[in-house]
Amino acid sequence: MPAISLNQTAARQIASELKLACGRFTLGDWPRLLARCATAACLDTAVAKKNQAVRIGSKLQQTWRRYRDEGFGQSLRHDLQSTKEWAVSVPGRLKSIIERFRSMTRGQQANEVANSLLAWIIFWASAGGADLEGGLPDADLMLGIDDHRNFISHSIFLGLGAEVGLRFAAGLFDEICDRLPPGHSKAWDTSRAFLRANKHRAIVAIWAGIGAHFLKDAALLGTPKPYVWLPGSMPIDAHKALFAANSAASFLMATVPDSHPSR
Fold first, then answer.
1. pLDDT band, very low/low/confident/very high, at 2 (cuts 50, 70, 90)
2. Is-contact 13 185, C-beta < 8 A?
3. Is residue 130 a contact partner of residue 209, using CB atoms and an 8 Å limit?
């Protein structure tokens, strides 16, 4: 009972502080606040994607030049050897990760586990669970079955929207925290620090989850449900290619650093 009473007191304090912080915005402040957060989220996402596109383009250009100058066969053998060496090094990398985890303090270990769990939860929530059905892409089912797998919900446009939404929510949370009263609950500062530390990891998890879902939808060894909302008609193999291309692009967004400082 004492623990329940304490939790209720903390919850009431947080709710009271949230109400007070929001009350410091006038009715006219809210549209400007939301517009500012939305603008910042769009700009941050645009800069991040531009940086990633530059890095990907540079890498592809380097690879193309290497294949052109060294010859296709030699370059392919080199890449296969690099892949083999990477695979052989995986056990050693895992051992290093485990040893690093063991060397952490208990608090650091708890943070690492919490951060990893957050990423996995977001990944599976975005992908749609273990069967990769549902998740963010299949939210279009709420529009009706005839709108399922439209080109907005089943392409990188979905990932861009989700990233903007996450950055918007983080920015709005920051704005509210800036207006909390002195002596506010430490839960606010803890949550703010956790969000700032894990925002990029959450974005990566969203993109990876969406990419996994699109790869399942591509049905490379079967017949997928085709896209809707596309102008004209195209063979089913073209639909497969579009799903696979959007999956590959989503995975690239998840694996290539954006070189953009987190706000």
1. very low
2. yes
3. no
CA distance 127 to 207: 9
pLDDT for 260: 53
Domain that holds residue 113: 36-70+104-255
pLDDT of residue 263: 52
How far is residue 71's CA from residue 75's CA, in Å, rounded to a whole number?
Answer: 6
Question: What does the DSSP assignment read for 169-219?
Answer: HHHHHHHHHTTPPTT--HHHHHHHHHHHHHHHHHHHHHHHHHHHHHHHHH-
Residue 93 has pLDDT above 50, yes or no: yes
Question: pTM (2 decimals)?
Answer: 0.87
- Average pLDDT (26-34) is 93
> What is the C-alpha separation between 240 and 125, in angstroms, rounded?
23
Tell the burial category of 72 from Cβ atoms under 10 Å away from its Cβ (0-12, 13-18, 19+).
exposed
Domain assignment present for 49: yes
- For residues 209 and 141, what is the distance between their CA atoms, to the nearest angstrom? 18
In a domain, 148, yes or no: yes
